[in-house]
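Summary for the steering committee. One of the milestones for this cycle was to obtain a three-dimensional model of the protein with zinc ion bound, which we needed before selecting residues for the alanine scan. The sequence and ligand used are listed below.
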Amino acid sequence: MKHRAALLLALLLPCAVPCAAETETRIPAVAIETASELRDRALKDDVAYDIVESLTTEIGSRLAGSENDLKAREWMIAKFKALGFDKVWSEPVSFPKWVRRSESAAVVEPYPQPLTISALGGSAGTPAGGLVAEVIAFPDLEAMKAAADYTVRGKIVYIANPRMHALRDGHDYGAGSGVRVQGPEQAEAKGAAAFLLRSVGSDGNRLAHTGMTRFSNPDKAIPAAALSNPDADQLDRIIKRGKPVKLRLSLDCGTEGSYTGANIIAEFTGSQRPREYFLTGGHLDSWDVGTGAIDDAAGVAITTAAAVLIGRLPERPARSIRVVAFANEESGLYGGKAYAAQHHLEIDKVILGAESDGGADRIYAMSATVKPEARAAIGQIAEVLRPLGIDYDATLPGSGGSDLSAVHAVGMAGLSLRQDTSRYFEWHHTDNDTLDKVDPEQLRQNVAAYAVAMYLAASAEGDFGSAPGAFEKATASH
Ligand code: ZN
Ligand code: ZN
């Protein structure tokens, strides 16, 4: 009897002692089948395009803290409800409010002519009537840092960093955006009157690329702007002629108090573990130039449309699907950081996270940062993605995306679906970020990939390793 009881107990409680097979996360075959059907359905689905079209046409640009910020949030709530999400709610996000009214620049000496610029988010304004000062040019930020302060004091610092290349993985964006984010504060520390840089973009259009810059003390902000690539080339040639160069900068912009916006959140409830969820989304804000179609109406649309395809299945996956339209990504990831602060105590409930913020062109690779026991499950997801032309690169990390980087940093397992950005940085943060840049066919491929990843992770037996502080080492190393 004793033996039979022990045997029965062993059958009822398999793996009371950990056994390797049970700690591996696996995705059931039936879910793989459903995900393949979802993938094929997504390739014929136009919900994502309709969302981008509606947001960019009915609202347009969505600068954080502007009137359109509020309008976009109301639009998003109505859209989520109309698309049939089970729950829709918002969570407050506060940030400094930056405004842009006007901007212009010109060469005063030696060859007077106008220059095309765009003020950087976070820039201070110039005195009314503009600021006239001599230019001091540096090839890069390191050269400026090495210069004696007296050579910089009272001048307009110009960093002539090289033009970005059009690359599939956009890897030189980091170098350029680093100059944009850190340069103005470092120039201010040396006593510069203002800061200019070559736009962080790969195009030859006479349009400047805006983007944020950061002053730890906003009271110390100086005027800071980007020159379009052709204008930077022109300034380079003028400087090369060796005569002193004077510019006039007129910026009417600045930080004006604070603003409370919100992350807009919607969820399809899971059938078995509703409190656990796949976290996805994009950012609802955009720069005030363009209509924010590729950055990031497309991301909101791709992830929302993928969730809707799952929500309309006859049977929901085990876990919920949560879409977040993040607030104010552009001036410093405020929405993502607020989400991480509000949800870090339940980070183990996030089965996996993946956000879309790389435009609307096709996804070519997938990578992930998950626990080792979930690698095989990531491989299963990769198999269903392969027919979409997506390769799995197991050597790269996957933080989940810009807004989700803060959530990843507090322990969320992350998946990155990497988009081809060879066209993205031609239009990014310019007047040219408009709907005509969205290719409906490539947009559908994105929806298909997200639908597959979201459905499979939400159906997994076992988890991907989300836990407080789980990926601290991984996030510190890249
Ligand atoms: Zn973005
Ligand atoms: Zn952006």
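Key point for the committee: The chain is about 35% helix and 25% strand.
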